[in-house]
Design goal:
The chain has about 180 residues and is an alpha+beta fold. The protein has helices at about 15-20, 35-40, 100-110, 140-160, and strands at about 1-10, 50-55, 60, 65-70, 75-85, 90-100, 125-130, 140. It has 4 helices and 8 strands.
Length: about 180
């Protein structure tokens, strides 16, 4: 199915994912107040507004299974896979990808955020959505974040010790 110009009501997934990442040491100041004012369509909203949401599903045992859920908006994209139950239970592994403009601002505001970038320098944050709708809140995928931060720190240390730029390693795939 495809939905155009819609909203996930009652939850602002990108804002919550970014705020909850602050539990990772060194990222406590991830959302300075001026970011909220510069990106008002993203921050301070109670819903997740999007330009498009698309996914294909297989239905079995009272659950919808997707491997290609994709949400697109001007300042972010979310790609996810997992299940949504007919009982409104949700178990999704997801990746929040910020726009180039938002990525640049996040990196400029908090230098440590560059450890959460992909090869193109775009901020990507793995997270999970689990629980029952409408009370589902995004939670950082701590195992995936720790691995990415560790790779980023090792790369930064290599640059300082040996000079030059290190090649970024491909991101590890996330699994539900």
């Amino acid at each position: 199915f495809d939905i155009v110009d819609g909203a996930l009501l009652g939850v602002n997934v990108p804002e919550a994912a970014l705020e909850r990442i602050t539990g990772v040491p060194g990222l406590a100041a991830l959302l300075p107040p001026r970011l909220r004012t510069d990106f008002p369509g993203l921050f301070g909203q109670k819903d997740t507004r999007f330009d498009s949401l698309a996914a294909s599903f297989r239905i079995a045992d009272g659950r919808l299974r997707t491997q290609d859920l994709a949400v697109k908006a001007p300042d972010f994209a979310i790609d996810a896979d997992g299940t949504i139950g007919l009982d409104l239970g949700v178990d999704l592994s997801a990746m929040l990808t910020t726009s180039p403009a938002l990525s640049s601002r996040l990196i400029a505001e908090v230098d440590t955020v560059k450890l959460l970038t992909n090869r193109e320098g775009i901020v990507t944050i793995p997270f999970r959505l689990a629980g029952t709708l409408p009370g589902v809140k995004p939670q950082p995928d701590l195992a995936a974040l720790a691995a990415r931060l560790q790779r980023g720190l090792v790369g930064a240390l290599g640059e300082k010790l040996f000079g030059g730029e290190q090649k970024k390693q491909p991101e590890a795939p996330t699994t539900p």
